[in-house]
């Protein structure tokens, strides 16, 4: 079983720093494989709580090397909820890489555990629009939501703005899943690169 690792987070930071500075992307230090995956960027300033800066991935299996390379940039630069990350923000970033596993169709919209399962919500709204959205396993716990609050927020994320009734929730189609994740702060990334590659190999890194 492949788990999310430090090397995967390093590769995402490498990809973003090379995007800003130019140069050659160092080869990844992990083996390839195929998994659904996500890359999440958060930003913390002056010791504050890290705030989401971008999160995009795929629910379909992708080769890990090209997947992390693509989504490191897509989540940083093209998450429509946020302006693109700028080079001056690098020192405040943390990166979380997630590999998604154990997909299971649930029998009820509450058939999942906060902090353990992510959810894919699929439903047809009263205007006959098909909608879908997903939250990673850590989201509900980080936000302090109940299960119902999580499901309702997920419906809003899917673009639905109308009333949400209990009878509507019972018609929701939920697929739950689990994830392996690894989080790395920029300072830890710089220290890792200095230790493993030497200062002459630091591409675009400023400290």
From TrEMBL:
PROSITE patterns: AMMECR1. It comes from the Eukaryota. Pfam families: AMMECR1. Residues 1-193 form the AMMECR1 domain. NCBIfam families: TIGR00296 family protein. This is AMMECR1 domain-containing protein. It comes from Ceratopteris richardii.
